[in-house]
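Ticket #4471: structure export looks truncated?
Reporter: QA, pipeline team
Priority: medium

Steps to reproduce: submit the single chain below to the structure queue and open the exported record.
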Amino acid sequence: MKTIGLIGGMSWESTQTYYRLINEGVKAELGGLHSAKLVLYSVDFAEIESLQHQGNWPATAEILIIAAQALERAGADFIVICTNTMHKVAEQVQLAISIPLLHIADATARVLKNDKIKRVGLLGTRFTMEQTFYRERLEHQGIQVIIPNDVQRVRVHTVIYNELCLGKINNESKQDYLEIVRSLKDQGAEGVILGCTEIGLLIQRSDTDVTLYDTTEIHAQEAVNVALNHLKD
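Actual output as written to the record:
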């Protein structure tokens, strides 16, 4: 089994979901008392969040590079950044290490293509929805991306940082999210990406008839697949 290196803490609320899903995935594959071999570097999200909203992405990259290099020294065979937004600096992190980094958008694109999805809605932080680093990764795979309107994007972003990252689950926010999901479907989305690792804490597949793609689940399963790949051969 390969050792997974997790860069977590962004927020820890979703990092614990990664930990659970990865271990559940390994147990499902190997049975018995098997669990994942992994090392976790958890950052202080307050520092990251402040730099994000200042637009100081180079400084956020340095924090993640330090984390990734520490994980590599600790014996990780590959890196998983447990957040969508910080994949904005994924390329800088990859260049600073000699082990692979599993990109969350690439993992998501593989699932979408397998489901023959051509047009998909995207929810996430304003950084993820509005900037090109994530959408272009999907569009290069032939997947058209639809994002909410400006007012909806503000609402989605605010709920993530002011509620979900603090562990707060609000029913009014849930209903707002579901309405935004429906509006994306009305615009032709064949499914909607939960492109922030906290969103799955608020809405689930059972809440809507729109197909939801939870990136936390997808990314965690990708980590399991890579970790166990040599065992399946």
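Status: closed, not a bug. The export was complete when the record was re-opened. Leaving a note from the reviewer for reference: Residues 12-30 form the longest helix (19 residues).
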